[in-house]
Design goal:
The protein is about 40% helix and about 20% strand. The termini are far apart.
């Protein structure tokens, strides 16, 4: 009897408690704080599938949309810091503090960065009959005509709004901003000739450019787009400061154990190197980042730059937090 008791005690000591079991021991929830069907949702599902393969556990996408992503983001900030609730989010993580008063979370203090996932350059596009024939004529025409030129965007704080603000700031011009409830309506009116310009993510604009529905003037940055290699970068017109890139990054709640974060980063790095992931993203006009960018340190630095630069653009434009 005594021997049996000793054996039971030994077995209890040897068996790890539930909290110490190898991660992941159950499905992971990946919160996408925007509505289903958009580019962000598609990107998140691509990475959920890839990380699921590398982690050996199901990764379930949870669309918790609203308030420019802040509702889903708050949900992750409140979650248990155990690696089973994660956040995939883009630039709104950096700009929401400038957009909303009393956010129930802090984008830096309440999260652990895991790594960047994608890099999405922006594209300056126009209605097909816009007068400028090339990039140099575009810059000259916009500077000469200012408020006569209409600039569509998908709403205050959206990627297209931020891109437009940076364009006006670097070209030192004020255009006639036309806000829409989303990129889709803005792009439709651009194709219909109701507005002049739009500066938005390649995932939405490249297909329309290739289809001849709108025309493109430049990539908003320092390098040309692989999808449109004949199109110049705006830096080639001497506008070096106009450099904006919309990236998605992966975060965990603050306090998530370091070994868990390391496993998640390793899975993310395998995902960004996965040929299937890279091909699917390329078809959307988006690129998977390098292994060096898919790290906590790189994402932390990227987030701080966006808070400083893009949050600063909103403040400079007089956008007041709600």
């Amino acid at each position: 009897m005594f021997g049996i008791a000793l054996a039971l005690v030994a077995a209890a000591v040897a068996a790890p408690p539930a909290a110490a079991q190898a991660f992941p021991a159950k499905p992971i929830t990946l919160v996408m704080p925007y509505a289903p069907g958009g580019p962000g949702d598609t990107i998140t599902r691509v990475f959920a599938g890839a990380m699921q393969r590398h982690l050996g556990q199901q990764v379930v996408v949870d669309n918790t949309a609203g308030a420019s992503g802040s509702i889903g983001t708050a949900k992750v900030a409140r979650a248990a810091p155990d690696g089973y609730t994660l956040l995939m989010i883009h630039v709104s993580h950096a700009t929401n503090p400038a957009m909303f008063k009393g956010l129930p979370y802090h984008p830096v203090d309440d999260f652990e960065p895991i790594g960047s996932a994608t890099s999405g350059p922006m594209l300056i596009v126009a209605r097909n009959d816009f007068p400028a024939r090339d990039l140099s004529e575009f810059v000259a025409y916009v500077r000469a005509n200012g408020p006569k030129v209409s600039l569509a965007h998908a709403g205050v704080g959206s990627a297209s709004h931020l891109c437009g603000l940076m364009m006006m700031s670097t070209l030192k011009v004020r255009l006639n901003e036309i806000p829409y409830k989303g990129t889709g309506p803005a792009l439709n009116d651009l194709m219909g000739g109701q507005v002049d310009l739009l500066c938005d993510q390649t995932s939405g604009t490249v297909p329309s450019v290739k289809g001849g529905k709108i025309k493109a003037y430049a990539a908003a940055g320092k390098v040309r787009l692989p999808q449109l290699p004949g199109l110049p970068a705006i830096a080639e017109a001497g506008v070096q400061e106009f450099d904006i890139n919309i990236s998605f990054g992966l975060y965990a709640p603050k306090g998530t154990p370091r070994p868990v974060l390391e496993q998640l980063t390793a899975a993310l790095q395998k995902a960004v190197a996965d040929p299937e992931v890279r091909n699917r993203l390329e078809g959307m006009g988006v690129s998977a980042v390098s292994a060096e960018q898919a790290t906590p340190a790189a994402l932390r630095a990227h987030l701080q730059r966006e808070i400083d630069v893009l949050g600063g653009l909103l403040v400079k434009a007089g956008v007041k937090a709600n």
